Amino acid sequence: MATPSHRRSLRKRRTLLASAAAVAATGLGASYFVMSANAEAVDLYHQTLAAKDGWASSGTGTTGGTKADAAHTFTVSTRAQLVKALGSASDTTPRIIKVKGTIDANTDDSGKKLSCANYASGTGYSLAAYLKAFDPATYGKKLPSGTQETARKAAQDKQKKNIVFRVPSNTTIVGVPGTKAGILGGSVLVQNVKNVIIRNLTFADTQDCFPQWDPTDGSSGEWNSNYDSVTLRGVTNVWADHNTFTDAPTFDKTEATHFGRKYQVHDGALDITNGSDLVTVERNQFTNHDKTMLIGSSDTDSTGKLRVSIHHNVWKGIVQRAPLARIGQIHLYNNVYDTTTVNGYAPKYSLDSRAKAQVVAEHNVWKLPSDAKVAKLLSGDGTGSVAGGGNLVNGTTTDLVAAYNAANSSKKIKTTVNWTPTLTAGLESSVKNLPTSLATSTGAGVLS
Ligand code: CA
Ligand code: CA
Fold it and tell me: 306 in a domain, yes or no?
């Protein structure tokens, strides 16, 4: 009879053989094989970020809740269960949270669906009264203040208590394979904590029921919303892997226009701000969204931090911020950008480098419609850098920065950076087949 260790080694060998077969079948590269072999030696819930896999592998690495005991290993399928499993934001006990199926954040403790009207109830807020109170034609171009703004804020706070999920340190949140796992209408807030893993989840339609009118935002004013699907604020060591981010089923094009501006109920998909550091974002799908990923919330966010690796993600049907990068050392590689307009989400630009951001963008692939301009793929304020080569546009190696700088007489993008990426496990330099391989190997629902 086989000893336990013998059985383990047999099982491991079978796993390796199965991985090798899978690699042969999909044509994925050798680097992917190594990661799969490591990953499959332990179950999905106990996997940790591989060595040298981007900035989140730096320092002590990113292990999430892998050391969780049985009492801190949860399977949740309702909002109330998720809240209970997350516990207190200050409790650093390792925990693993398996999300089974889709959790609707806009539900009460008994699972009953909550509407925007439910949150507004008792506050005195109504959109009609708000629009009447702050019409620039009568109220002027100043920030809303008074009864209806107070009521809006009260209603917003009620929704916030319901849909924001605070994640403590040393936590792994993973979708259970085969269950369409995800969070609908919720905002996962990882703030001032360390060591968090978020995988295999679909984050859909994170909505603020109560956008605020700001007539001073831009030249024409904006409606601003409060919640990202995932917000990283002041965190260290976070790995976001194999998730899907989308506004579906509520596309921006279906929203009304008020005061001449589109009513915007969505904020970011995955925002990384307030001195967050050592983050790896890989193999996610970002789709059907406007302001997708902010790195640094202002030009003075935090120097020496905001180090983020973004690789093997698919960005399709997104308008801007993929990402908008500030200040940090940011490595962007092996991503696929499809700038086809999807459900009314018409791309403005892909990457914005500003506030002295030190971006290395290499071996990414862009698919552009025939009338799109390469010069429009980048944006900047004249202080940001974008280095790196080997980027393909419609199959041809292209210097994006040269194209951008040739088309812009000022605010040119700098081409040198103050660092060289070394945490690059899995970096592929031959990327022609990346659109095909990432189409079926990214986002929620492909891990098992
Ligand atoms: Ca906003
Ligand atoms: Ca945000």
Answer: yes
